[in-house]
Design goal:
The protein has four domains: 62 residues, no CATH class; 105 residues, Tetrahydropterin Synthase, Chain A (2-Layer Sandwich), CATH 3.30.479; 44 residues; 31 residues, no CATH class. It is built from seven helices and eight strands, in the order H-E-E-E-E-E-E-E-H-H-H-H-E-H-H. Strands 3-2-5 form a three-stranded antiparallel β-sheet. It is elongated, with a radius of gyration of 47 Å. The mean pLDDT is 79.
């Protein structure tokens, strides 16, 4: 002890220095990978990006402090895009899409080495835009607005998937959320669709009326044929017998008073009176 100052033992300082170094070493050597993520290992003195091994999975990992771990999200992600494309006749179409994608976890090393962390901007967006322009350019505004929406959606997905096939990306779906046409074109299409609908309704009513008329003609013809056959089969004797039967039934009625005067046409009696 000199001049009132406390002197530390000579062995303390090396221990403190070693402790500080150990803390720095551990802080640089530990990596925690969260759920839905995976890590690409980059080795400074052993060839750079590791591509022949599986990426680091979720959890706690210890790596050499001179190496680096690049963390990627490997869950499904969504890309919302609004883009202007041209129809087959050169009109501007505003297309809104949602793309579901994720990096292939077992190929993260190659993705990082060949494309990098910004793979969304570098390959997915350009691929989607190229496919959308190619597909939409094959259709008219009328087709885009009405019947071809599902077909266009499937074609954009297939063309985008082909472009990304060797880019270490898994494409799950491309959804066409909305197709916006120029207002004048949209109004013209809606008027045309309305006219077509009215024409179809008129044709339906016309066909229905024609069928009803044909039905009535057939029924009338059937009744006429039945009456003709019945008339041809009736003889004077049959008519006389029927008249007699009817007269007898009428004479037996308690509500009738029978007065026979001479004879009626065809020899049938005349019955008069009623109570």
């Amino acid at each position: 002890m000199s001049n009132g100052q406390l002197q530390l033992p000579k062995t303390i300082m090396p221990i403190i220095i070693i402790g500080i170094i150990a803390i720095i070493f551990l802080s640089k050597s530990t990596v925690t990978i969260d759920a839905g993520e995976a890590g690409v290992l980059w080795k400074r003195f052993a060839g750079g990006v590791v591509t022949d091994e599986a990426p680091l999975g979720e959890g706690f990992h210890i790596v050499a402090p001179w190496n680096e771990v690049i963390v990627y999200e490997v869950r499904q992600q969504e890309l919302y895009e609004k883009m202007k494309v041209l129809s087959s006749n050169g009109l501007d179409i505003l297309l809104e899409t949602s793309t579901w994608y994720l990096p292939k976890a077992n190929e993260l090393g190659k993705l990082h080495q060949q494309i990098g962390e910004n793979y969304l901007e570098r390959i997915i967006k350009p691929a989607l835009r190229s496919a959308a322009r190619s597909v939409v350019g094959r259709y008219t505004p009328e087709q885009l607005y009405s019947s071809k929406r599902d077909v266009i959606q499937n074609e954009i997905f297939e063309e985008t998937r082909i472009i990304l096939e060797d880019q270490f990306i898994q494409l799950n779906e491309v959804l066409v959320r909305d197709v916006t046409l120029p207002p004048t074109i949209k109004d013209a299409i809606e008027r045309k669709l309305k006219q077509e609908q009215e024409s179809l309704e008129y044709e339906f009513r016309l066909v229905t009326a024609t069928k009803e008329a044909e039905k009535q003609i057939i029924e009338a013809q059937g009744k006429a044929d039945a009456n003709r056959i019945l008339s041809a089969s009736l003889t004077d004797k049959i008519l006389q017998d029927k008249g007699i039967e009817a007269t007898i039934k009428l004479s037996e009625s308690t509500n009738s008073k029978v007065i026979v005067i001479g004879s009626g046409k065809d020899g049938l009696p005349l019955i008069l009176g009623n109570q």
